[in-house]
Amino acid sequence: MNIAVCIKRVPDSETRVKIGSDGKSLDEAGVKFVLNPYDEFAVEEALQRKEKAGSGEVAVFSVGPAAAQETIRTALAMGADRGVLLQSDKIPADGYITAQALAAELKAGNWDLILFGKMAIDDYNQQVGPMVAELLGLPCVTAATHLEIDGAKGVAEREIEGGIEVVEFPLPAVLTADKGLNEPRYPALKGIMAAKKKPLEVKPVQLGAGSIEIVALTPPPQRKDGKIVGEGAAAVPELVRLLREEAKVL
Amino acid sequence: MTSVLAVVEQRDGALRKISHEVVTAAHRLGGTVEALVCAAGPVKGADQLGKFGADTVVTLTNAAFAKYAPEGMAHAITERAKSGGYTAVVFAASATGKDLAPRVAAKLGVALAGDVTEVGVEGGAVVATRPVYAGKALLKVKVMGKPAMLSVRPNVFTPVERPKAGTAETIAANVPAGRVVVREIKAAEAGALDVAEAQVVISGGRGLKEPGNFKVLEELARAFGGQAAVGASRAVVDAGWRAHADQVGQTGKTVSPTLYIAVGISGAIQHLAGMRTSKVIVAINKDKDAPIFKVADYGVVGDLFEVVPKLTEEIKKLHG
Ligand SMILES: Cc1cc2nc3c(=O)[nH]c(=O)nc-3n(C[C@H](O)[C@H](O)[C@H](O)COP(=O)(O)OP(=O)(O)OC[C@H]3O[C@@H](n4cnc5c(N)ncnc54)[C@H](O)[C@@H]3O)c2cc1C
Ligand SMILES: Nc1ncnc2c1ncn2[C@@H]1O[C@H](COP(=O)(O)O)[C@@H](O)[C@H]1O
User: Fold this and answer.
1) CA angle, A64 as apex, A61 and A69 as ends, to 5°?
2) CA distance B162 to chain A (A)
3) Which residue out of A116, A131, A142 has the highest number of ligand 2 atoms within 8 Å of its CB and is therefore the one to mutate?
4) B142 touching A (Cβ < 8 Å)
5) What is the residue range of A31's domain?
6) Closest CA to B46 of B77, B73, B85, B6
7) pLDDT confidence of residue B52
8) Residue in B with minimal Cα distance to A170
9) For residues A57 and A82, is the Cβ–Cβ distance under 8 A?
10) What angle do CA A160, A162, A163 make, to 5 degrees?
11) Residue pLDDT, tens place only, A122-145
12) Looking at the domain that runs over B3-172, which CATH code has it been given?
């Protein structure tokens, strides 16, 4: 099995968001960056599939700044074989531009599977995976929580409102990983050491601006100060009164 | 006159309620609104879309559209979008819309602003606001694609009635056979509402102590008479107490109900990511310093096993 996994460097989910002086971007000072959590599911799935097949390679691809090499090393430490950084100072707000860069790079490969995370936890775009699939003309299942592959046939499950869709598709295919697909491994010390020697190719790319223009990045509106209605069951009648008369939601 | 395409949804031949929200959002972009639905045959409730501002309702029919057909529907919607000179195409950021919209955007070669919570037109450009960084910031963008592609977060665009003619048209869609085929839908418990679409969400966390205790929350949900769903924190989903489909938060669902009740949930930042856009938040927690009280509009400090049954009793009185 030859599997490509697209991974993104993102601010850790605990990050306190401070807005940059341009009013349009995150102030990155002091921010810790990690491998996008959904991409961990994708890397794990790739490793398990390759282990099961007994042969093939897992290659990871990332579009991002030079520092994204660290993110690639994390995936290599988990067990991926090699990495490619499509280096660009900025990751465009328009996911279609990122998708084009990834598709151009992946086109030449002979992949059985191309895996993505369901979404990046910084931009919440939820689009790069299916866009790459369209650009490469491959079948695609998004937000998979379960996956079975038998030869050139796959069956995936995805959560929909009030149920689970069971989806059949042929390989090669593009899949995006949701939580539940597997339990990502932690890189072991041995893996971390080995990762340092694995191939990591850096290729500069020129990315267009795309058709999303950032107007402003702002803090969310402050929720007006809440109140503690009281303690214990005795506070419940007052809570219900407030929900009815003040909040008007009952 | 400009025109906006509102891509709406059906399941089992009935229009999904979120369609009213999509049409309502589309209407904010000005011009006429064409609602478009892919289905195997006539869609029950599609004639109601005029009431929410659709000038026309177009049903694209194909036998394959009885279930979600990602490739066929993306093809049919793209063809329609190309033919009409629309300024914008609006989807729901539902499970289906999140899968479909990026496919259509890539086929059209334009950008997609997904899961938006505000839309409008400023200086002739479509603008949209989307929560980013787990809801810790809002990103306002100009969507310059022709057409501008958007998907709207469920439960944010309250449907507004503004009666229009709502003329109907049915067109047989010719689409290539799809490679990706939905074989079956395993339905959740009959009648169970999805947390992402319920008007009231009551979520439980580790404070519930054991899985069986969730019945306390289910009783409260029932007291709301079919409008409420029970959600969960990741801690209890990871422990196997509740299904992942019910998880609220960064690695679960994003919900914006009218009323969110957090019970025995501490209020970790990743949980807040999924519920902070709820209209009214109530927290019940025995620890008065729990961070959940910082986002809650109303808090009750106390043992949930005393507070929740009392609340159920009071709600029953109202609905009784
Ligand atoms: C990458 C990442 C993604 C994550 N995604 C999510 C996500 O999507 N959703 C999510 O929820 N979390 C997520 N988390 C986990 C999150 O950080 C917290 O660990 C989790 O939300 C805690 O769950 P909890 O509030 O149920 O448990 P706890 O933090 O243990 O809180 C339990 C609360 O119950 C209260 N309590 C106990 N007994 C009672 C009682 N008898 N009556 C009243 N109150 C009581 C306690 O005071 C406490 O506040 C994520 C974490 C990471 C790192
Ligand atoms: N800059 C990037 N480099 C590599 N992969 C990416 C990049 N951005 C997004 N992806 C992939 O696409 C998925 C969805 O991202 P998004 O559409 O931005 O929410 C991520 O989980 C990654 O797998």
Assistant:
1) 65
2) 23
3) A116
4) yes
5) 2-204
6) B6
7) 93
8) B179
9) yes
10) 60
11) 999 999 999 999 999 999 999 999
12) 3.40.50.620
